[in-house]
C-alpha cells in the first residue's frame, strides 16, 4: 500500500502500538511510534501524573508531521491525536491522511493502563484523556473500530478499510 499515510489514534491504552504494529506488518509500511518523539519534558510530565496541554503537544505534532513527510512511500503513525485541531495539524503535513480511531470506554482504558507494567503512563491520567478526546466521527478519512474486539480482528478491519481506500 505504497503512498498511504495512516494514524492509529485514541486514548492511552486503546491499543495504538499493538494495532499499529499489525497494520504496519500487513501493509509493509514503516511504523512511526509517536510516543518516541515526545520531548523528554512531556514524558516527565506524564510520568509525574500531569496531563499534557495544547502547548505541550504542538511541537510534538509538528515533529510527527515531519516524520511522515520524511517517508514519501507512506507510513503508519501511532499518535493519540485526541482533538480535531491536532488531527488538522497533522493533515497539514501530508495529503489524504487517514485515521483509524480505536474506541474504548474509560473503564476499559483504565483497566488496560493499570495492568500494563513498566510503562511511563500512569492510570491517574486516563480520565484526562477522555476529557480531551473529541471524537473524529464526521471527519473525512476516518474509521472508528471497537478496540475491545480481539487485536487481530481490530487490525484486520483497519487493513480491509485501508485496502479499499487505497
Ligand atoms: N484489542 C485488544 N484486546 C486485548 N488487549 C489489548 C487490545 N489492544 C491492546 N491491548 C493491550 O492493552 C494494552 C495497551 O495497548 P497498547 O500499549 O498497544 O496501547 P496504546 O494505545 O499504544 O497505549 P499508550 O498510548 O498508552 O502507549 C497492552 O497491554 C495491549 O497488549
Ligand atoms: O496526547 C497525549 O496525552 C499523549 O500522547 C498520551 O496519549 C500518551 O503519550 C500515550 O497515550 C501514553 O502512551
UniProtKB/TrEMBL annotation:
One of its GO terms (biological process) is D-gluconate metabolic process. InterPro entries: P-loop_NTPase, Therm_gnt_kin. Pathway: Carbohydrate acid metabolism. It is an enzyme of class 2 (transferase). This is Gluconokinase. The keyword Cell cycle does not apply. It holds the Pfam family AAA_33. It catalyses: D-gluconate + ATP = 6-phospho-D-gluconate + ADP + H(+). Belongs to the gluconokinase GntK/GntV family. Keywords: ATP-binding, Gluconate utilization, Kinase, Nucleotide-binding, Transferase. GO terms for cellular component: cytoplasm. GO terms for molecular function: ATP binding; gluconokinase activity. Its EC number is 2.7.1.12.
